[in-house]
Design a protein that fits this description.
By secondary structure, the protein is α/β, with parallel strands linked by helices. It folds into 2 domains: about 220 residues, 3-Layer(aba) Sandwich (Malonyl-Coenzyme A Acyl Carrier Protein, domain 2); about 60 residues, Malonyl-CoA ACP transacylase, ACP-binding (Alpha-Beta Plaits, 2-Layer Sandwich). It contains 13 helices and 10 strands. The strands form 2 sheets. Strands 8-7-2-1-9-10 form a 6-stranded mixed sheet, sandwiched between helices. It has a 4-stranded antiparallel sheet with strand order 4-5-3-6. Helix 5 runs parallel beside helix 6 and helix 10 runs antiparallel to helix 11. The longest helix is centred in the middle third of the chain and has 21 residues. The radius of gyration is 18 Å and the shape is globular.
Length: about 290
Amino acid sequence: MKAYVFPGQGAQFPGMGKNLYETITQARDMFEQANDILGFRITDVMFSGTEEELKQTKVTQPAIFLHSVILAAAMGEDFRPDMVAGHSLGEFSALVAAGALTFGEGLILVAKRADAMQKACEIKPSTMAAIIGINDDIVEEICSGIDETVVPANYNSPGQIVISGSMEGIERALEMLRERGAKRALRLQVGGAFHSPLMEPARAELEEAIRSAVFVSPVCPVYQNVNAMPSTDPQTIKSNLVAQLTSPVRWTGTVRNMIAGGADKFIETGPGCVLQGLIRKISCDVTTESALVS
């Protein structure tokens, strides 16, 4: 069974989507529709901007969403998922690709999400850190024992977890995790503590937009970040999507559950190949590849 997976923030690169725009009429039309919806020419930044320009929150999240969703649409009849999932932001791409949300409504939600997250980041200095080579339960134990906001944010693969929290909490956690034997424990260059309680202002702001958006049943099960479980019920999908901003991304569990559900081929749909690497660390019994458009 085919599982299509959609990347999150960090997968962007200069020139992303340009070939799609120049070679496929449908893709060009969708990119131009996106420019109109967003009120600025995001294509100019995607195709010709610098890495620094692409890192702007208002650009990064819509850009990755657009690349992913337009790539899926350009596959036409070849895009036949048995199940889908997305990592963080990628969950929105997965929902649109699977027909639970329209392209326009999905893009509007992603733009609002980016704006709400940026505002939340400005309220209190915060950050994230990657922890490699130590058991998840040790990371959880250390985070819970710190008298600051610091929590597991991304369960990416066995032995690879990202934590999220206040500057003080992250620094203390890094020291303790290094002492406990983590092979690597380093801060990430991000603007805030995503998937933590510090995103509560963003969650509250985005909830109204998600609740008022029109969701329908997707063409296949969507495995969601907050519980790693499949859903086709629009109301359940909405509730999980609202909770996503302040909850950890359970990617390891998601991939394992998709495999248990029959997935034996994972196709990464969007920029980069990060998810393929994570999936191979989770299971060596499945194949991974990037989505291609003929």
